[in-house]
C-alpha cells in the first residue's frame, strides 16, 4: 500500500473526528483513559478485540475502519453529492455511513438542542417577568 496508507490508529482517529467525537468521549465509552485512546490512535496495529469495541462505539464495522481512507471519503462525498443522479446508489460505499450526512445530522441535532434551550430560557425569562409584575 505504500506510505500513503493510513495506519489503523490514524483511521480510528479520522472516523472519530468525522463523528464529532472527542478522545475523552471515546475513552469514556470504552472505559479506558484518554491517554490509552491517544496511544491506540498512534498505533499502526490494534488488536481485533479492541477494534471491535471501538467500531461499535463509532457505529461502524471493523471492515469500515480497516478499509477507511481519505480517498474513500472524498470519493463517497463526490459520488453522493455531485453524481447522485447519474450513478448507481452503491458507488463508492465502502462505508456504512456517509461522513457528510452524519455531520449534517449531528449539526441539525445540535441546532435543535440549542433552539430548545433557547426556548426554555425565554420561557424562564417570561415567567420571571410575570412574577415581578404580579
Would you give an account of this structure?
This protein is mainly alpha-helical. It is built from seven helices and no strands. Helix 2 packs across helix 3.
What is the CATH superfamily of the largest domain?
lambda repressor-like DNA-binding domains
Q: How many beta-strand segments?
A: 0
Q: Return Rg in Å.
A: 20 Å
What is the CATH architecture assignment of the largest domain? Answer: Orthogonal Bundle
3D shape: elongated
Taking pLDDT < 50 over at least 5 consecutive residues as the criterion, the unreliable ranges are 82-93
Find the CATH topology of the largest domain: 434 Repressor (Amino-terminal Domain)
The ordered H/E elements are HHHHHHH
Amino acid at each position: 500500500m505504500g506510505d500513503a496508507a493510513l495506519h489503523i490508529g490514524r483511521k480510528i482517529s479520522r472516523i472519530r473526528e468525522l463523528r464529532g467525537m472527542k478522545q475523552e468521549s471515546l475513552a469514556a465509552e470504552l472505559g479506558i483513559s484518554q491517554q490509552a485512546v491517544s496511544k491506540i490512535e498512534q498505533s499502526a496495529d490494534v488488536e481485533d478485540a479492541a477494534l471491535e469495541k471501538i467500531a461499535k462505539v463509532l457505529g461502524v464495522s471493523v471492515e469500515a475502519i480497516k478499509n477507511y481512507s481519505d480517498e474513500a471519503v472524498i470519493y463517497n462525498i463526490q459520488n453522493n453529492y455531485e453524481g447522485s443522479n447519474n450513478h448507481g446508489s452503491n458507488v463508492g460505499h465502502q462505508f456504512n455511513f456517509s461522513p457528510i450526512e452524519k455531520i449534517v445530522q449531528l449539526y441539525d441535532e445540535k441546532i435543535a438542542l440549542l433552539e430548545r434551550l433557547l426556548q426554555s430560557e425565554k420561557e424562564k425569562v417570561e415567567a420571571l417577568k410575570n412574577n415581578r409584575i404580579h
